[in-house]
Model the fold of this input.
Amino acid sequence: MTEKHSGKPNPKKPNRRPPGIYLDNQATTPTDPRVVEAMLPFFTERFGNPHSTHHAFGWDAEEAVEKARAQLAALIGATPREVIFTSGATESNNLAIKGAARFHRDRRPHVVTLPTEHKCVIESVRHLEREGHRVDFLPVRPDGLVDLDRLAETVSEETSVVSIMAVNNEIGVIQPLAEIAEICHAKGAYFHCDAAQAVGKIPLDVAALGIDLLSISGHKFYGPKGIGALYVRRRPRVRLEPMIDGGGQERGLRSGTLPTPLCVGLGQAAEIAGQEMAEEEARISALKTRLLEGITGRLPGVALNGHATQRIPGNLNLAFEGVDAEALIKALAGLAVSSGSACTSTAVEPSYVLQALGLPEDRARGSIRIGIGRFNTEAEIDRAVEELGTAVKRLREEGSAAAE
Done:
């Protein structure tokens, strides 16, 4: 029997901002107030259906959606007609990978990806494998980057799509996108890039990089949740099989009424990112250096997971020797950090991404992800260093005492 909701607030889930410092900006980012302001009129005053073409309410909504499409296209170097709105990166990844593989299944039944990809990419590829496609999960280097020689050996004339993310959601490493695209195109394969962690944080030009399909998620760069996009190259044309049947909106690739407020929010987030990216990257990079130097200056036995320099400025994935990550996170009552992807944070096992790097199990179990974002301050970073240092020292002392 379904429990009836009382309508009263749950005291365990207060309707206010949780206390503490938020350092989990790879899981999600707060919606920028400027984005919220742009969205608000489209919930109440300008509420038309963007697909209603017979009156001014619909025209107004359509105009707002198309402005947002152009804003997002400008951020990634695309044309507006190449941007397809979706519910987020999970849907975009599914549409790109399954759509490309199924459309070309007869001549190109092969798909290639990495074991460090987001779960929605891995599960999409596994689903294709169950349908009869041949798949390869290529091992990555110890620093988390793709082995380009191994990739070149694996991609063939039968490969339909290669899916490799721009920035890893756990360890923050930036893959060599142009080199990957060149390898794919030499064999006539599509290059799909999950750029959920990259868009709005690092410069991306899909045309210059040679990317054929690129997935975007609004809530990863200060836009609203529930909205994303898929870039689909038009020249040369990328062919996909749609997953959702309906009215044929979004160039026939993604049916369904578009959520105008969310599209507007995504467009506004893209415009802000384009204007402020360089300045923000420098500020966040300085905060990351401050945090890393602060922690390593206080504690021995701290190691960085992933490539040391080829990574986004806001990500630190740190291993603390002699400390269990879950115990450390519980001890950090004033800090919001994570032990891995938000989509797998309930797993007891060590992060599958860290395992794919070949890290020893104790190091993988002792690693946490710290995500610095737009609204973090120097004072918050200094407090985080203090709390981390205190918690790690205490847990190590407790571990040593228990071992005696």
In short: Residues 1-9 have pLDDT under 50 and may be disordered. The first strand starts at residue 21 and ends at 22. The radius of gyration is 22 Å.
